[in-house]
Amino acid sequence: MQLISSDLHFDFIGKRKIAFIISAVMLLVSLGALAGKGLNFGIDFTGGTLVEVKFDKAPAIADVRAAISPRGFGNAMIQEFGSPEEILIRVQNKETEDSSVISNAILDGLSEAFTADAIEMRRVEFVGPQVGEELTRAGIMAVLVAMLAILIYVTFRFEFRFALGADAALLHDITIVLGLFALTGKEFTLPVIAALLTVIGYSLNDTIVVFDRIRENMAANRKRKTPESEVTVVNGSINQTLSRTLMTSLTTLLVVLALFILGGEVIHDFAFALIAGILVGTYSSIYVASPVMLSLANRFKQNEDEIKEMEARP
């Protein structure tokens, strides 16, 4: 059964200027959010103590803060976790304190305000600031190494302009996903870094499929007596692979949506990053990677023509 016809003639490349404007707006909003609000780094990166507490009835965040403020935790980050009855409390450790001292102080403060029977300590996690800094560097390096490796791989497999188009699409995707995390205030943790690397692989896979078809059609185009323009070849290649691109994205998205809805709070942000990455990655493989590659092809051709013109001068 074929849900999408393979004989499509959408003018994707003809609309690339509109797509560039849309991408520019999304990138500006994302960069503005990252510069203005910044990412809500999880304890993996900031270091500190995380305490998860379950109440018998949903408490008000203001009441929880009032209960632990006399203990010196008025600046703690407090948020719901999964259900209104479950609360996450994250605090920065002082040099002379360890996680057991902090968790006991928090539990004592809550017990006085809500009674001990109404509170259940679910878990306590501690990450030192040095470990947080190392994880931050490792996460950044993982993304940069992946981008560099992709640039080298696509250059050898295709051409340099294809590699630049692929990396432009990946940078576009990562920036927008990070911008969404900044806008929504969702916690940025190590699983989200894993989701970003997954998005890089997913988006690249879509882009490589399109680039493969473009290369095949360009080779066939050179053998014709009446060759078509590169714009026509690229546009036709995107249309020919559109069915595969959309069906792959749809089936993957259904699985990730199930994780997002049914997977629980622990993997909620991970699934959110994947959903955003799949949607943006599908868009970029059509409207960013190929149009950028085509724009670079025109630029390279212009440079070659200028060189030939200079060589021909006496």
Description:
By secondary structure, this protein is α+β, with helices and mostly antiparallel strands. The protein folds into two domains: 13-40 and 132-303, Multidrug efflux transporter AcrB transmembrane domain (Multidrug efflux transporter AcrB transmembrane fold); 48-127, Alpha-Beta Plaits. Helices cover 68% and strands 11% of the residues. The chain is elongated and about 85 Å long. Residues 302-314 have low confidence and may be disordered.
Q: Tell me the total number of β-strands.
A: 6
Instruction: Please list the strands of the largest sheet in the order they lie side by side.
Output: 3-4-2-5
Q: Output mean pLDDT.
A: 79
- The dominant shape is elongated
CATH architecture title of the largest domain: Up-down Bundle
Number of domains: 2
CATH superfamily of the largest domain: Multidrug efflux transporter AcrB transmembrane domain
Secondary structure category: alpha+beta
Task: Estimate percent helicity.
Answer: 55-70%
Name of the top-level CATH class of the largest domain = Mainly Alpha
CATH level 3 topology of the largest domain: Multidrug efflux transporter AcrB transmembrane fold
Beta percentage is 5-15%
Kindly provide the radius of gyration, computed on alpha-carbon positions and rounded to a whole number of angstroms: 25 Å
Note the main sheet. 4 strands, antiparallel
* Count, helices: 10
The N- to C-terminal Cα distance equals 64 Å
* Low-pLDDT windows of residues: 302-314
Order of helices and strands: HEHEHEEHEHHEHHHH
